[in-house]
Amino acid sequence: MLDLFVLDAASSERRPVFVRPATEEDLTATRDWQTNWTAPFALGLPNKVALCRLETDELLGLMSYELNQGNLAVQIIYLESARHSNANLLHVNDGRKRYIGIAKALFAYAAQVSMEAGFDGVLVFRAKTTELLDYYQREFGARQVGAYDPFRLVIWEDAAERLIAEYRRDTDV
Q1: DSSP labels, 97-153
Q2: Spatial CA neighbour of 168 closest among 134, 99, 121, 100
Q3: Among residues 46, 81, 104, 132, which one has the fewest Cβ atoms lying within 10 Å of its Cβ?
Q4: What is residue 172's predicted lDDT score, i.e. its pLDDT?
């Protein structure tokens, strides 16, 4: 079982979070995000889940994924942090993130889904920017799949295990 959390950017304190299926209300709340999740393309995405704060149910991020039987992996199709913690949106007006680690918590969740599906934690996805490409490689242990599309990445079993271990609930307590 995962004990997911994000860090409060102001205090560096852990804030417990959980993942649940995204609701229509969650999708509607994205109208001022980088992507409007009520657009036809986003509505058509499979397995949409929401990352929320445990105490307040505050929406922190959304992710769409699918089980890719051909690659024996979970494919993360799209992932986005809420406006208040989205570096791309905050950069425009020199804003500061409210929470740190939204994507990491969602990736750990996806790695757990991959484990449960028998894919050993393997994830495949595409980085949106060069900065994210570097970030995923440095922070998550992602590796480039090939030279044709340098933004295609994979998180192999060993990196997935490290990611999950960061959030693993201590069962000895």
Answers
A1: -SEE-HHHHHHHHHHHHHHHTTSTT-EEEE-SSHHHHHHHHHHH--EE--SSSTTEE
A2: 121
A3: 46
A4: 43
**Range in 86-90, 113-117, 149-153 the model is least confident about:** 86-90
CB 122 within 8 A of CB 74: yes
What confidence tens digit (pLDDT) does each residue in 7-27 have?
A: 999 999 999 999 999 999 999
Tokens of 69: 């039987």
Write out pLDDT tens, residues 102-147.
999 999 999 999 999 999 999 999 999 999 999 999 999 999 998 8
Query: Is the Cβ–Cβ distance between 50 and 64 less than 8 Å?
Result: no
User: Token pair for residue 46?
Assistant: 């499979």
What backbone phi and psi angles, to 5 degrees, belong to 109? -60, -45
Q: With beta carbons less than 8 A apart as the criterion, state whether 139 and 133 touch.
A: no
Sheet containing strand 48-53, strands side by side: 99-100, 5-8, 14-21, 48-53, 59-68, 73-81, 123-126, 152-155, 143-144
Amino acid at 10: A
Tokens of 120: 């050993």
Strand 73-81 relative to strand 48-53: parallel, antiparallel, unpaired? unpaired
Q: What is the DSSP letter of 82?
A: -
